[in-house]
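My current task is to audit a protein record that another person submitted. I have pasted the whole thing underneath without changing anything:
***
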Amino acid sequence: MKMHRKTLSALYIVLLLTLATLGVHNQQQFRLQHSLIQEKDSQHQRLAELRGMAASITSPLAVSQWAASSGMIPATEAGDFEQVTPLTSPEPIPLESGLEVRTVWR
């Protein structure tokens, strides 16, 4: 019976040490997860700031202000302006060959 108690006591100590080791590992993983969540939050905040900066450059209002400061004016305010019509496409040059194809649609 004494051997049986010693074996159970040793098993208890081994299991207790294993549980303590797992607890330490769990706490390390928890700290890592917490720091990663904080990093994710800071990256989301940075992304929001960068999107705001990009909008200040590429928004329609910013582009309109840039065009006005560069001397551009809207076409409706230009006064005398002329619409340029596109040229008509050139007539195709028929190729001379001895083959003629006719299609009849019914």
